[in-house]
Amino acid sequence: MARNTGSVCRLCRREGLKLLLKGDRCFTDKCAFERRAYAPGQHGQSMRRKPTEYSMQLREKQKVKRIYGVFENQFRRYFAMAERMKGVTGENLLLLLERRLDTMVYRMGFAKSRTEARHLVKHGHFKVNDKKVDLPAYIVKQGDSVQVREKSREKAWFKEAVEGIDRRGGVPEWLMVDKDKGTGSVTAYPARDQLTMPMNEQLIVELYSK
Questions:
Q1: What are the tens digits of pLDDT across the range 115-157?
Q2: Which of 52, 65, 136, 195 is least surrounded, with the fewest CB atoms within 10 Å of its CB?
Q3: Phi, psi at 185, each rounded to 5°
């Protein structure tokens, strides 16, 4: 599947939010968003007219897609799944995105960014419940165990990733991680208030409900 090959820092600037797409670099003074916190392009610093209701909904959808690294068709499928689930559709949508294997790998601290996590999963560095899984979109369930393959634990990328866990905010409380063994388990699903990235999922629900 095709991926964005341009500057990911432009995506952060376009959304007006640090999306943490470049891992540890986002926490240093080299972060492009810190140096140029305005939209890219020649008119990025100019005054813009008041956004319409539709443009606000569209921007929110684009922001969430970019945070989790999914494309439109896949995002629509997640939304359809969220509608069929019990509970609030918007919260269900975010929960499904959080349960993706690449997101879980990132949250557990085994990768420095979601982009790196997706790349590592595709190359077969992880197992779920002792079975190799190379699909980043694999939905992890409560009670599942995610393991770094034994040979992969000796790789430099793994050692660098676990060393920077605290710098990236630590491991969420709904996950249990053993950094030395390269294993993590899902003890619970996150509550909405535990997802700290600023996202207004209701705008996405309104957009797809038109």
A1: 999 999 999 999 999 999 999 999 999 999 999 999 999 999 9
A2: 52
A3: -135, 155
Structure tokens at 110: 């085994």
Q: What is the pLDDT of residues 169-181, one digit of tens each?
A: 889 999 999 998 9
Token code pair at residue 81: 């799944």
Burial of 154 (0-12, 13-18, 19+ CB in 10 A): exposed
pTM: 0.80
Do 70 and 93 contact (CB within 8 A), yes or no? no
Single out the residue of 94, 108, 92 nearest to residue 144, CA to CA. 108
SS3 100: strand
Strands 145-148 and 175-178: unpaired
CA distance 91 to 95: 6
Q: Please name each of the domains of the chain with its CATH number.
A: 1-49 (1.10.1050.10), 52-98+196-210 (1.10.1050.10), 100-188 (3.10.290.10)
Amino acid 14: pLDDT: 58
